């Protein structure tokens, strides 16, 4: 039975899009077997999708020192329905922002800690246009979280 990786993202810019594509590329690497990768914009994700997933990658710009309103909305909609049922599931996070990314990461950490999710990889933080090393970090993030679902 295959596992499901849910990528919940808010992708309002070309830079965020590049990062998302790199994460997806890593998560769908041919060496990763029996992991279905599902992408959902943060404003459309439903609690049932979060409940059905075995792991998560979250992507957001850092806006005014916090995660995007779209990702916060996703958490608001899904938090209580998923509170007990998704504990100990792996997750990863990528952020794009020019400053104030610490507040965004702190906010996501507080919510994922409340959900009982476990960090599967270090957060990827990119400022400005993602360069090759940054995109490799995004690829590795997707691959790392997906690979943990194979175990």
Automatic annotation (TrEMBL):
One of its GO terms (molecular function) is oxidoreductase activity. Residues 47-102 form the NADPH-dependent FMN reductase-like domain. This is Flavodoxin.
